């Protein structure tokens, strides 16, 4: 019995890295009966006698896991957005941040294509950069066409397992190609009619980049909050979470309740109005969703 980490999953095959070798494995039939799916990033025990016909015997307990993208044991999440083509979308950014925060994974924000916007647009992006920095997030503006910008990213990735996620067309594959040119990941231009990129990544795979492992994942543009309850949402907004203990009523949703410390902080400019508006929008979305049976 050998041990290793799943680094790629394609069409029912799991590629397990063990030392310097990669073994092609299938999952045990009992996994299907127990509704267990091995994920990229899982640490596993497997039969490694034949490098091309191995079987995963057990999956070790996970530190965390994401559903979309399906990956486990992640140290940090790099959320890639773009300053242009597609335009920076703060609502979508906050959706990604909430999803990552709900899994207790550290988010890092990269905003690409900063060289493609004018000074007025750049000032707007910098205002958002300042906002997220004040909350406590790491955020960096980059151009994947500038080698100097890419060189400065390695210290974010070194010795970490990162998931890279973001809207299609923001430059995730270009970013990884810049960090590791040998990957030669396929990139597509933005669809001018739709204003978004084509999906170029079809499976999840851990690839070497910047001295660490990065999960290159399928692009997606919508996120729901099926696994987040209304009373958990505030914990996914750090600036709201740290103030909710000062609300008069325990279990305050910071919406219509009186003497709410969060609403007071919004009025006093200590919590950004746009972030609070997004919180209320997500809260309404969670409260109005249909129950699952």
UniProtKB/TrEMBL annotation:
UniProt-annotated location(s): Cytoplasm
Keyword Nucleotide-binding: yes
Names of the cofactor(s): Zn(2+)
Domain EngC GTPase: 72-221
GO biological process: ribosomal small subunit biogenesis
Cofactor note: Binds 1 zinc ion per subunit.
Main location: cytoplasm
Alphabetical keyword list: Cytoplasm, GTP-binding, Hydrolase, Metal-binding, Nucleotide-binding, Ribosome biogenesis, RNA-binding, rRNA-binding, Zinc
Residues covered by the CP-type G domain: 63-223
Top-level taxon in the UniProt lineage: Bacteria
Enzyme Commission no: 3.6.1.-
Signal sequence range: none
GO cellular component terms, A-Z: cytoplasm
Listed InterPro entries: G_CP_dom (IPR030378), NA-bd_OB-fold (IPR012340), P-loop_NTPase (IPR027417), Ribosome_biogen_GTPase_RsgA (IPR004881), RsgA_GTPase_dom (IPR010914), RsgA_N (IPR031944)
Family matches, as PROSITE patterns: ENGC_GTPASE, G_CP
Residues involved in Zn(2+) binding: 247, 252, 254, 260
Family to which this protein belongs: Belongs to the TRAFAC class YlqF/YawG GTPase family. RsgA subfamily.
HAMAP family, sorted: GTPase_RsgA (MF_01820)
Function: One of several proteins that assist in the late maturation steps of the functional core of the 30S ribosomal subunit. Helps release RbfA from mature subunits. May play a role in the assembly of ribosomal proteins into the subunit. Circularly permuted GTPase that catalyzes slow GTP hydrolysis, GTPase activity is stimulated by the 30S ribosomal subunit.
Protein name: Small ribosomal subunit biogenesis GTPase RsgA
Organism for this UniProt entry: Lentibacillus halodurans
Name of encoding gene: rsgA
């Amino acid at each position: 019995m050998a041990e290793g980490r799943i680094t790629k999953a394609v069409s029912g095959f799991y590629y397990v890295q063990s030392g310097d070798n990669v073994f092609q494995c299938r999952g045990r039939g009992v996994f299907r009966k127990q509704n267990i799916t091995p994920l990229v990033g899982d640490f596993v025990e497997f039969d490694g006698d034949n490098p091309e016909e191995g079987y995963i015997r057990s999956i070790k307990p996970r530190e965390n896991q994401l559903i979309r993208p399906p990956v486990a044991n992640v140290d940090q999440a790099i959320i890639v957005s773009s300053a242009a083509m597609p335009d920076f979308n703060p609502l979508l950014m906050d959706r990604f941040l909430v999803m990552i925060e709900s899994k207790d994974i550290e988010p890092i924000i990269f905003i690409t294509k900063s060289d493609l916007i004018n000074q007025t647009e750049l000032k707007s992006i910098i205002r958002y950069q300042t906002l997220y920095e004040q909350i406590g997030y790491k955020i960096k503006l980059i151009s994947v066409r500038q080698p100097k910008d890419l060189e400065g990213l390695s210290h974010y990735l070194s010795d970490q397992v990162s998931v890279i996620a973001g809207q299609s067309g923001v430059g995730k594959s270009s970013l990884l190609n810049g960090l590791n040119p040998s990957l030669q990941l396929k990139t597509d231009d933005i669809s001018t009619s739709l204003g978004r990129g084509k999906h170029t990544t079809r499976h999840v795979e851990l690839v070497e980049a910047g001295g660490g492992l990065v999960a290159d994942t399928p692009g997606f543009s919508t996120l729901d909050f099926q696994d987040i309850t209304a009373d958990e949402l505030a914990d996914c907004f750090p600036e709201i979470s740290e103030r909710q203990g000062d609300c008069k009523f325990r279990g305050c949703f910071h919406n219509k309740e009186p003497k709410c410390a969060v609403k007071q902080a919004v009025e006093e400019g200590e919590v950004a109005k746009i972030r609070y508006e997004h919180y209320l929008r997500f809260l309404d979305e969670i409260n109005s969703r249909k129950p699952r049976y």
